[in-house]
Design goal:
single chain, 333 residues, alpha+beta, Mannose-Binding Protein A, Chain A, 4 helices, binds methyl alpha-D-mannopyranoside, binds calcium ion
């Protein structure tokens, strides 16, 4: 601006020198103009000076501002450098972060898959657990039932054990009894065989005796005489027949003997000791069937006879009298 002003001023001065004369008037006019112009220029200069001052001030301000801006710029550059470093660092970190994010994303996706699997597994496990719970409950119920059943069986077992013990004892007792029974059976078998042999003998005897009309009753053969003899003769007849006068040992035998309604000698006598009645085999009279007020004959009546009229039908009579008689032949005791 100053340079432009100098140029402009020199040009004005040159024109003025060249045209001094010619242009004196002109210059006068011009001078006037210049004066006016100078005045203007002075004003303008003053104005420019002000402006210059202002400009210098402004320049100073701008310089200060520039310097300030330079500092700021320097600061900004420094800051920029820091920011660049920071940015690069952040870029690295971002890259790392992106990579990490990628990894994390992959890991997340993997974890999602795993999670999904775990979720499915959890669902299965939950169902399985619920199923197992039900089964456990069932099992517990069943176990309770079985425990009760077991206790009941234990009680039953205990009862059976007691029963078994009793049965064992009973069995052992029965075994002993069976052994005894077998022994007894053996004895009975022997006895039966003996009796069979005796029966065979009797049969043969019977065949021999058949014409004399012997009757069988409870282990003995009985024969009633068809003629009459004294007690001693009657007895002798029986003895000749391998028998003896009848001996009455029971009510059945008494009734059997009585039914023939024959007044006859029986094998009863007190000849040996007066008043002591004995059977012909020497045995005493245990069960007697004396008639009313009998025996009453004392030493005059020493032989027994059957009168048949009532159940108590025995009488002591005189041995020398003749009566029918009954023989008995025992075939088993
Ligand atoms: C007969 C005789 C006796 C018997 C009486 C019973 C008369 O004598 O048989 O032995 O005791 O009868 O009346
Ligand atoms: Ca008598």
């Amino acid at each position: 601006m100053q340079a432009a002003l100098n140029i402009s001023l020199r040009l004005a001065l040159f024109n003025m020198a060249k045209n001094v004369t010619e242009e004196r008037d002109e210059l006068r006019r011009i001078n006037s103009d210049i004066e006016a112009s100078c005045k203007n220029l002075t004003e303008e200069r003053d104005d420019l000076k002000r402006k210059l001052n202002d400009s210098v001030s402004q320049q100073n301000s701008l310089t200060e501002e520039r310097d300030e801006l330079r500092r700021i710029n320097s600061d900004i550059e420094a800051s920029c450098k820091n920011l660049t470093e920071e940015r690069d660092d952040l870029k690295r970190k971002l890259t790392n972060s992106i990579n990490m994010a990628k990894n994390v994303t992959e890991e997340r996706d993997e974890l999602r898959r795993i999670n999904s699997d775990i979720e499915a597994s959890r669902k299965n496990l939950t169902e399985e657990r619920d199923d197992l719970k039900r089964k456990l409950n069932d099992s517990v119920s069943q176990q309770n039932s079985l425990t009760e059943e077991r206790d009941e069986l234990r009680r039953i077992n205990s009862d059976i054990e007691a029963s078994r013990k009793n049965l064992t004892e009973e069995r052992d007792d029965l075994k002993r009894k069976l052994n005894d029974s077998v022994s007894q059976q053996n004895s009975l078998t022997e006895e039966r065989d003996k009796l069979n042999r005796a029966i065979q003998g009797c049969r043969m005897e019977l065949e021999k005796l058949s014409p004399a009309r012997w009757m069988y009753f409870r282990g003995s053969f009985y024969h009633i005489s068809s003629d009459q003899k004294t007690w001693q003769e009657s007895r002798r007849d029986c003895q000749q027949k391998d028998a003896d006068l009848v001996i009455i040992n029971s009510k059945e035998e008494q009734d059997f003997t009585r039914q023939f309604q024959k007044y006859m000698w029986i094998g009863l006598t007190d000849l040996q000791t007066e008043g002591t009645w004995k059977w012909v085999d020497g045995t005493p009279v245990t069960k007697s069937y004396w008639g009313p007020k009998e025996p009453n004959g004392g030493s005059g009546e020493n032989c027994g006879e059957m009168k048949f009229d009532s159940e108590n039908s025995w009488n002591d009579g005189s041995c020398s009298l003749s009566h029918f008689w009954m023989c008995e032949k025992k075939v088993r005791p």
